[in-house]
Amino acid sequence: MTVAYVISQSSMTGRCGTWFEFPPVMRRVPERLSGRGNGIGASMDIDMGSSDRRQGRWTRLRRTVLGLAVIVVGAGLWSAAGSVCVAQENPLGAVHTPAPPPAPKTPEDSKPVIEGADNAAKLATSRRDARIRVDVNLVLVPATVTDPMNRLVTGLEKENFEVYDNNIGQTIKSFSTEDAPVTIGIIFDLSGSMSSKFLRARKALSEFLRTSNPQDEFFVVGFNDRPAVIVDYTSDVDDVEARMVMLKPENRTALIDAIYLGVDKLKQAKYERKALLIISDGGDNRSRYTEGELRRVVRESDVQIYAIGIFDQYAPTTEEQQGPILLNDICEMTGGRMFRVLDIQDLGDIASRISAELRNEYVIGYRPSDVKQDGNWRKLKIRLVPPPGLPALTVHNRQGYYAPSQ
Which residues contact residue 108 at a Cβ distance below 8 angstroms, ignoring those fewer than 6 apart? Predict the structure, then answer.
């Protein structure tokens, strides 16, 4: 009997989508090809008269069956591997970012530390390589002074001021009139009622920015139905002006929410001195926060608030009638002022005036004689002792502060 057979290459794909090709087990050129079965073609001629050939036939048949078994087992193993591939989790989900190594110490960190005011006074000159750390509970109070004509008064000296903390007189430790940089947040009304006033209000803002200290930094919060930061921290006046050109007044007025956002944004300020300038024409009719919540957060902050009020002469709604009262209260609470616009033509002059006040403040520092770290509100008052010959003057400063807590 003569047997000729062909074992063809078999290819299959795993469930992971990768092609795997089994190598050929055997390959012989068939004498006569008939039938197909799983990639194996076979043709047989049988000669019943030869036992040797019969024995050879069985030998080759066993080899064929063995090759087929290898193929079947291999296919099963590959299928199982494919199932595991599908079931496994995303390896990125098990990735854990290691904590960054500690920053290398600088030469400054290796210097000895002198703590306390007494030790600093004794050892600062003898240990010039040391760092001095003094816990000074110093309170800094910005203040402006105006005359009966509401004009800014400059040129006063330390002796012209008296400070009272909880009605107790204090010793002034520092006094400055330096034009230090300020971080200023602009709260700009973009509600529908500002449509006829928008161009002049935008020009007034430009006037304010261009007369400020060149080192001042600004951000702008625009608001109508809701507030949003439309210009982030920058000292580039051109950038602010370019962004403001694209805005359009519409919808209602979420004034309280906008001021709340501005106070919170000032927590990221670069400079210690911080201020808000509000430009609006009416009361609130859209906010989620209440007046009480706003007064509380303003009282807790170390922020001066100024406002330019472009109010209608006859306010038709309760919100518009209450708007000027709210703005005036929070401005006085922080040592700022509200300027009511009687003529829209005066917007630019008022903006320049506010800028001048921020650049000509008296900054008074004192250390409270009654130090209590109880977190309570402490009333603050500054009394003027003007030089002879001057009219009655008015000082504008914040009304108090919260003492630090333990």
Answer: 131
Name 223's bridge partners. Answer: 189, 227
Strands 217-223 and 183-189, by their bridges, are parallel
Largest CA distance in the chain: 147
**CA 50 to CA 52: how far, in whole Å?**
6
Q: DSSP label at 398?
A: B
Dist CA 218 CA 208 (whole Å): 11
Residues shown for the chain: 406
The pair of structure tokens assigned to 379 is 């009333």
Identify the structural domains of the chain with CATH numbers, from first to last: 2-90 (no CATH), 105-135 (no CATH), 178-359 (3.40.50.410)
Cα(225)–Cα(217) distance, integer angstroms? 26
- pLDDT tens per residue, the chain (406 residues)? 444 444 344 444 444 443 434 444 444 444 444 444 444 343 344 344 445 555 666 666 666 656 666 565 555 555 544 444 443 443 333 333 344 455 455 554 555 654 544 454 444 444 444 444 444 589 999 999 999 999 999 999 999 999 999 999 999 999 999 899 999 999 999 999 899 999 999 999 999 999 999 999 999 999 999 999 999 999 999 999 999 999 999 999 999 999 999 999 999 999 999 999 999 987 899 999 999 999 999 999 999 999 999 988 777 777 778 889 999 999 999 999 999 998 989 999 999 999 999 999 999 999 999 888 888 999 999 999 999 999 999 999 999 999 888 6
Amino acid at 101: P
